[in-house]
Specification:
The chain has 701 residues and is of the alpha+beta class. It has 16 helices and 34 strands. It folds into three domains: 105 residues, Serine Threonine Protein Phosphatase 5, Tetratricopeptide repeat; 292 residues, Neuraminidase (6 Propeller); 241 residues, 60s Ribosomal Protein L30, Chain: A (2-Layer Sandwich). Strand 13 and strand 14 form a beta hairpin. The longest helix has 21 residues. It is elongated, with a radius of gyration of 30 Å.
Length: 701
Amino acid sequence: MYNTGQYQEALIYLSRIDKLESSGPLLFKKAVCLYETNQLDQAFMDFRKAYEYGYKDEHIDYYIGRIKHHKGEFREAAEYYKSYLRSANQTAARRAEATHLIRQCGYAIELSYLKPIAIINNPGQAINSRYDDFGWIQSPNDPDQYYFTTNRPNTVISMAAGHHEIYQIADESGTWSKTKRLTYPVNSRAEEILSGISQSGDALLIYRKDEKSAKHIIHRRGSQKGKQKSIDIASRFEVENGMIQFYSDDIAIYAADQPDGYGGYDLYISYREGSGWTTPINMGPEINSPYDELSPYISNEGRILYFSSNRIESVGGYDIFRSTYLFESAKWSAPSNLGIPINSPGDDLYFHLNDDGLTAHFSSDRKNGVGGLDIYFAQFKSKEEGQEFYAGLLPFLSYSMDEVVAIAEEAPTTPSPAEDPIADDLSVDDITADSVALSDIAAEQIDGPELDSAEPVILRPLFFDNSRDILSEENMSQIAAIATALSSYPESVVELISHTADDGIPEYNLYASLKVAEKVKNTLTKNGIDAARIRITGLGASYPLVKSQMESMAQAYNSRIDIKIHNNENIVVDNEIDVDPIYTDLSYELYRTLIDQTISYKIEIATVNQMYRGIALSLFNDAAIEVLDETGLYAYTIGLYDNYAEAINTQRSLEREGVVDAKVIPYIDGKRLKADDITYYINEYPDLKNFMNYDRTIGSN
């Protein structure tokens, strides 16, 4: 038992030996078992007793160093490691490890002075066992259903510890249900490790390994074992412990020990191309090191990468690091350690940030846990970036237009909230049958009072702190009023003009503002409002109401959606916000003045499926995004002018900067004009004749 690492069982047999307490070699073995089962204080005492009984093995110093290290006594731990090195043979297997641990102790001392960025919690035996528990994933359909991998013994088919299987657990109104082993064919007599859940929520991505083969498979609802589909990723890579993230159904980031790497395990990326997968791409020297890089997780927006590494800049073992993709230099930033208490002297792996950016989960074998790898939850003191929206496209990959269109067409839609299809597909005897509905208020029906056609309706802006707050209870009452007004006046059209505080680079502010408005639009359409009657515009931080230097006030007032109603005078919109003039930004008033004029012009710089990043956004601070009715594509524009001459001058300046596809677009009352509209309005607005005389692109709109 001892030699095969079954330390809990070995302790039972050791305790039956009469002369255990007077035998140095046996006390040493007992102490190792106590250390491996997280009983550090008793282990320390037995290592000392073994030494007193004449057992002078140098590994006593090594293990006491490990105990001190795990208890956060980094200076003392380093001294014991040094003592081990002085005694150990030059060919001793642990010499290199002890040297590395000394360096990590030095870095841990530095990290211990930093303020923690999160509070962590071990949920205990409700989830964790004394074996390895890892790979925690929330169902995208039902936020109360979770899946994870464990190697705890399975008494159902008499499998011993060490055999990995996939389990499920539910949050039942704040109380964890019993853990449930998923039935055949999800689990079999082979090893099964959960790698992910498909974007639609109807399939598990599973790594399956037996004596004959190892492969990733897709288990969709209703699949029999013979009909499960293999995922043929073009590489031999080490995923026995789930060291892979499927960013989407078509993009995989994983750890592999390859000859072309920088040393040890490196992070690679591969994506689906046609019927197969691309040759793996190494993530580069900014991410990878001469040490091991494992368990990658990339943020929803695709620009922040979390991973685990045992490099020197760690508290000990594997720590979780963060790196941000820098658009300006097209490189990753130097990875930074997330610090204590997220990281520990143990191995900290499988980090996954939740969509709210404030909570995360990971696994760790730290010595104050239940045993083995335990699942931990982290609550961040401030929001981690990168989770506001799902980009679909990764900024560090090059895509052809066909690939962009394909990814956009396959972009995840909101899964049906009725039930978790994976859980529903499994035996009622082996899994909770009654899944809880998705607690997303956007999926609920919203009711407002019926209106008399002569009665004016007053609508006000929607304020939010983040994209989730837009569907707060207070805002839902306003959204209900919008829905009621549009239902009562079928000829009316609503325009949602979305702003954000200046929280980051312009392209993300812009895109985030559009996504917030899309949530409101989706809520309205789910409640019977024709999508053609809802126009949305994202302005990001282009036209702030409050000066961005007034940080708290700017956050409170600039993150909002203004409402504009077209074709109806009975619906009154009150977008006036009482702010002291000394705090107001004149750009907002300028925007309102120009957009409320009957005719205006913008310069379109791109029409794309996803977030646009280009030089024009760095040259101007008045960008906007709108959704084109016909295609659903995102049209990026800059500028806002009341005459064609100024607009065409800006277009020409953009062309000199290399933005060759820029074109002037005319608007009437904030609505983009098409070719047929020009003929209708040209006599009423003579400046349109200038546009028609000099512009030849309107016919393509």
